[in-house]
Design goal:
By secondary structure, the chain is mainly β. The chain contains no helices and eight strands. It has a four-stranded antiparallel beta sheet with strand order 1-2-8-7, with no helix packed on it.
Length: about 120
């Protein structure tokens, strides 16, 4: 998905919180990943699993990464297996938001894709 924000095109991964738990296949640069989203009711937070897809099978990379507002996903990992663009849950609509909630995830708060510094994307 794409959005025009401040005169430039910004891409994001479209997640609908009403469909969570759910899995999405997402092509980023030259690889396809499966992202599986879950919601932890007790802790009131979302998580995501990341797997690479190759020939119909999946290889796990990360399980249970907690989505935190403004914090890039998978930032602790930085090798060729991980997505080249930075995936960051933020709100670009100007709303005063500082946390991911059931009501704003997939609406105001989206998983935006940003170029990785020095990544060439």
């Amino acid at each position: 998905m794409k959005l025009i924000e401040n005169g430039r095109q910004v891409e994001y991964i479209d997640v609908d919180s009403d469909r969570v738990p759910c899995a999405l296949l997402v092509k980023l640069t030259d690889r396809t990943y499966r992202l599986t989203f879950r919601y932890n009711e007790e802790g009131d937070f979302f998580t995501v699993d990341l797997e690479t897809s190759s020939g119909g099978s999946y290889s796990p990379l990360v399980f249970g990464e907690v989505l935190r507002y403004g914090k890039p996903l998978f930032e602790a990992f930085n090798d060729e297996r991980y997505p080249l663009p930075v995936i960051c849950p933020v709100c670009l609509t100007g709303d005063d938001i500082d946390a991911i909630t059931w009501d704003n995830f997939g609406q105001q708060v989206r998983l935006y894709l940003f170029d990785r510094v020095g990544g060439g994307s």
